[in-house]
């Protein structure tokens, strides 16, 4: 029986966005270097799953439009909100406390070389996690991410944004799952560049503050299931 792929897990806690971005770049480049070294074995690449929460920050994808940020640079500074134009796909989104931000650094050549399938699988991880809480997560045609009631005009609400980058089939960036997120921050942007649609959180849908560590464990278990992998904690 084929052994499961191992994914090294690290919970980074609350971390500034730039520090987490730098760490992702480091891990991605280490894996790309292994793949580029003719003397190395591609089996030497390492898969990671990083969880973190960020202080309030708006991030704009490489094809995004800054007009989707409805605050000036001065207003951002006055409200202690950071802003980064970054190298993932997608448009504008928000990261902040109470949100599970997941950064998978995977060598997709060990899984499948299909970015569309990868995005759908990340969505499925969140859809399964919502099902654990009795909620029906779904996809919205042509819009990456996870939604509730995407086909009910006026009731569509996004609960998880997804945007990734891939180099030599090694991934970075990932998903932002609203758990106990302060949703008022989304009023200052056009989330993902999609106007007239709501954003929600697990706590809003269930009407109570969630145990974020419990939610993290469910996301991890569903990630293992969908990616047919074993998540192992990195040794200290």
Summarize the model shown.
With 236 residues, the chain is an alpha/beta fold.
Topology, please?
Layout (H helix, E strand, L loop, with lengths): L4 E10 L2 H20 L10 E7 L3 E4 L12 H6 L3 E4 L6 E4 L3 E7 L9 H18 L4 E4 L2 E6 L8 E11 L2 E9 L19 E2 L2 H5 L5 H16 L1 E5 L3
Parallel strand pairs: 1-2, 1-12, 3-4, 9-11
Antiparallel strand pairs: 2-6, 3-5, 6-10, 7-8, 8-9, 9-10
Helix pairs in contact: 3-5
Task: Explain this structure.
The protein has 5 helices and 12 strands. α3 packs across α5. 35% of the residues are buried. It has 236 residues and is α/β, with parallel strands linked by helices. The strands form 2 sheets. Strands 1, 2, 6, 7, 8, 9, 10, 11 and 12 form a 9-stranded mixed beta sheet that branches. Strands 4-3-5 form a 3-stranded mixed beta sheet, with no helix packed on it. The radius of gyration is 17 Å and the shape is globular. A hairpin with an 8-residue loop joins β8 (143-148) and β9 (157-167). It has helices at 17-36, 73-78, 115-132, 202-206, 212-227; strands at 5-14, 47-53, 57-60, 82-85, 92-95, 99-105, 137-140, 143-148, 157-167, 170-178, 198-199, 229-233.
List its salient traits:
alpha/beta, 236 residues, single chain, three-stranded mixed beta sheet, globular, 28% helix
Average the pLDDT over all residues and give the rounded result: 92
Major beta sheet summary = 9 strands, mixed
How many E strands? 12
N to C succession of SSEs: EHEEHEEEHEEEEEHHE
User: Helical region count?
Assistant: 5
Overall shape: it is: globular
- Uncertain runs are none
Task: Name the helicity range.
Answer: 25-40%
Structural class: alpha/beta
Q: Strand share of the residues?
A: 25-35%
Return Rg in Å.
Answer: 17 Å
End-to-end Cα distance, whole Å, is 30 Å
